Amino acid sequence: MNYFKELNALLDMSSAPYSGFNVASIVVTKDNKVFKGVNVESAAYPTTNCAERNALQTAVTEGAKLGDIKEVHVLGRNAQKLLVKAYPCGSCRQVIAEQSANDAHIFCYASETDIEQFTIAELLPHAFLGAEL
Ligand code: THU
Predict the structure, then answer these.
(1) 26, 57, 96, 105: most buried, per Cβ within 10 A?
(2) What is the pTM of this model?
(3) Banded model confidence at residue 8, pLDDT cuts 50, 70, 90
(4) For 98-108, what is each residue's pLDDT tens digit?
């Protein structure tokens, strides 16, 4: 399913006063529930939360269990208000790997038709999934 229109509308909920870079994310669970997230920045910069992890954490809050995440959709908008692809950061890749049992598909949008698709294993090879803990 194509989530461009929902992502584009969601960008306006992003709070990014420091970078001016808005990110919207939609995650879909294996039972096809949909959860939204945006990036929320902080004046204490490292406390910023990414859109993808906010969406994932809402999914978990609403009942998604470890391994339930199937898809992560992402759209960025830069300070010049141009739509651009936002590739998930390393921390988000780790959380996506764990919450999808290393089986998520990630869709990075720049428009309704310009979409790059990856598996989480492509974006984070040799993921540490905690089996060794
Ligand atoms: N950001 C995300 O929310 N997701 C990404 O995929 C890339 C980066 C946010 C974090 C910060 O608010 C801003 O984009 C610039 O790094």
Answers:
(1) 96
(2) 0.98
(3) very high
(4) 999 999 999 99
Residue nearest to atom 1 of ligand 1 (CA): 50
Q: What angle do CA 90, 95, 99 make, to 5 degrees?
A: 150
The CATH architecture assigned to 4-123 reads 3-Layer(aba) Sandwich (3.40)
Distance, CA 42 to ligand 1 centroid (Å)?
Answer: 12
Half-sphere exposure of 91 (CA within 13 A, CB side): 10
- Please give the sequence-ordered ranges of beta strands (E in DSSP) within 41-98, or none if there are none: 69-77, 83-84
Kindly list the protein residues whose Cβ atom lies closer than 6 A to any atom of ligand 1: 16, 19, 21, 23, 39, 41, 48, 50-52, 74, 86-89
Q: How far is CA 84 from CA 8, 22, 69, 77, 126, in A?
A: 11, 10, 24, 6, 28
| Closest CA to ligand 1's atom 6 | 88
